[in-house]
Amino acid sequence: MFMGKSIFLFIALISFSCFSVFSQNLVSADVTETDDAVTGTISSDNASVSVSIKKPSRNPANGKETQAASVPDSFGNVKLGMSVDDVKEMLKKDSQFGYRGDRDVSLMAGENRTLIETDSSRYAPYSYLDRCWFQFYEDKLYIMTINMNQEKLDHYSVFSQLCEKYGTPTSLNPDKSEWVSDTVIVDLERPLSIKYTDRVVMEKIQDASHVEKTSKEKNREQFLEGL
Length: 227
Known about the structure:
Blueprint: H1 5-17, H2 19-22, E1 26-33, E2 37-44, E3 48-54, E4 57-58, E5 65-66, E6 74-75, E7 78-79, H3 84-93, E8 105-108, E9 113-119, H4 120-123, E10 129-137, E11 140-148, H5 155-166, E12 171-172, E13 176-180, E14 184-189, E15 193-198, H6 199-225
């Protein structure tokens, strides 16, 4: 936060830069801090200057300030929203996944949804990845879970890098750190995996599930009422 010394420095810098305008007639300096910026107005008898300084986000891992980027929707060349065939092609081109072709593709039981499961630990032992899952809904990738090799990477290093690139997590608890945008959710889960979720598709599936559940409950009530 831009508190204490930071606010004092803000006033001192603005006062110094405006010295030629206000000369020795500084009357007041009003500073306001919000979550996003520090703003201030310096006034004299015959003039006033308003300045706003936007805050960068702060990396909770090391305390360094960093400008947040948009939440990512891809890992390597694999991107949420891709078709099954497109994801297959990307996995073939990226040896770190250890993809073996259609033998790694299956249908999720009872859901008519495609699942691709790769195992780098067996088929690409040099990789920094472990087993990975790619889930599809209506032939579009909406969840990918990237498990990482814990012998080569650690949770803190991955967390620090994500904070450096994407800013402070939207939410944080002992089990996972989460970055959220309007369209994508990225979770760093313990022990060491990154989960990318198409938020729009996930909410669509959840809404459909809720409607189906409500319909079943109503049918049950109607049956009981008819006894």
